[in-house]
Amino acid sequence: MIEIKEGALFISDAHDNASRDGFYHFLQDIQHHKIKTTQLFLMGDMFDLLVGQVTHTVKHYRKTINLINTLSKEIEIIYFEGNHDFNLQKMFPSVTIIPIQKQPLLCHFQNQTISLCHGDLYEDENYLRYTKIIRNPIPLSLLNLIDQTFGNFISKNILLKQQQKSICKKQPFFYTYIKQKLQKYDIGVSKIDFVCEGHHHQNEEFVFDTLRYKNFSSFACDKSYYQISFTDKIIFKELNKR
Hints:
It contains nine helices and 14 strands. The protein has helices at about 20-30, 55-60, 60-70, 125-135, 135-150, 155-165, 175-180, 185-190, 220, and strands at about 1-5, 10, 40, 50, 75-80, 85, 95-100, 105-110, 110-115, 195, 205-210, 210-215, 225-230, 235-240. A hairpin with a 3-residue loop joins strand 13 (about 225-230) and strand 14 (about 235-240). Helix 1 (about 20-30) runs parallel beside helix 3 (about 60-70).
């Protein structure tokens, strides 16, 4: 079980692409000690499309991949795979990678238990089948072969569509959706105090009886990231890279 350190940073859903390079500059600020931390949680979808078996996506993000690997030799980095970035372990040998199969991950902080995940868990059966298919190395390797044969047409097209996609929208009835979703978590048995997710881009925090829930903002939308601390309760202080 991972012990969260005082002052650890959390960043989610940067959706890095050709027109959004704020994530790279955020990492540079850590490298140059303008942003200080000894522990960094990457909560998934840090890239618009980064898949271990798809060669063009790895090449496309090589500069940022190299910077993460450089930082991982200096600070502890925990990377939760999302639905846009997965099968990452070989790319990041010194980073603790949390694939979807190991999410949610229970962590300790100040004698409390925090459940962390990207946030695309506990969806309907169709989505769960889809997540298994897209992470399967056999069809991915075949897809990569086809992609390379045709000048990386498939991956380039996906990256372009993701770049044009509107991702900063408020979701109606989000409180109700989360309340229902939390019933699928193992709250009582695992004695969870706090559930934290990305994925939804909502920047909301709710209290359900004794359980607290935090949905991190999308860094792509408002350049927000969070620093954890504890006074009489756990606090995720929102910071801004603008």
